[in-house]
Amino acid sequence: MDDVDAPRRASFGLSLLVALGWYATVTAAVLVGRTGLPAAPNRDCSAVFSCLTPQEEIGLMVILGGPILAGLLFSTLVVTGLLARRVPSSILTGTLSALGSVVVAAVAGAVWQGAR
C-alpha cells in the first residue's frame, strides 16, 4: 500500500575498493610508461637525479610520493564516506571519490605552492 523502499546506499567497502583500483591502475600505467622509455644516449649527469636507473627512479618516487599517497588515501576515505550515503552505485561512488581526492590534493598543492 504505502510501502516505500528506503533509498539504496552504496557499500562503503566496495566503493573504497573501486577507488583503490583507480589508484592502482594509474600507478601501474605510470610505471609501465616510465620504464618503457629508452634512455638518451648522451646524458649529462651533472644535475642531481639525472642519471638514475628506472629502478632507482621508482624507489625515489615511492619514498617521495608516500606522503602524497597517504594524503590521497585519507581524503578518499572521507569523500567515500560522504558519497556512499547519497550515491546508490558503488562504482560511481568509488570513481567520484578517487577523482574528488585528486582534486583535493591538487588544490592543497596549489595552496602550498602559493604560500611558499
Estimate the global geometry from the Cα principal axes: elongated
Low-confidence stretches: none
Q: Report the span from N to C terminus.
A: 63 Å
Q: Say how many strands there are.
A: 0
What would you call the structural class? mainly alpha
The radius of gyration computed from the alpha-carbon positions, rounded to a whole number of angstroms, is 20 Å
Order of helices and strands: HHH
Mean pLDDT: 84
Keywords: Membrane, Transmembrane, Transmembrane helix
Protein name: Vitamin K epoxide reductase domain-containing protein
Structure description:
The longest helix is centred in the middle third of the chain and has 30 residues, at 54-83. Helix 1 packs antiparallel against helix 2 (54-83), helix 1 (12-35) packs across helix 3 (90-115) and helix 2 crosses helix 3 (90-115). The model has no long low-confidence stretch (mean pLDDT 84). This protein has 116 residues and is mainly alpha-helical. It has helices at residues 12-35, 54-83, 90-115. The radius of gyration is 20 Å and the shape is elongated. It has one domain (12-34, 53-115). 69% of the residues lie in helices and 0% in strands. This is Vitamin K epoxide reductase domain-containing protein. Keywords: Membrane, Transmembrane, Transmembrane helix. The chain crosses the membrane at residues 12-32, 58-84, 91-112. It comes from Micromonospora globispora.
Provide a compact summary of the structure.
This protein is mainly α and 116 residues long. Helix content is 69%, strand content 0%. It is elongated and about 75 Å long.
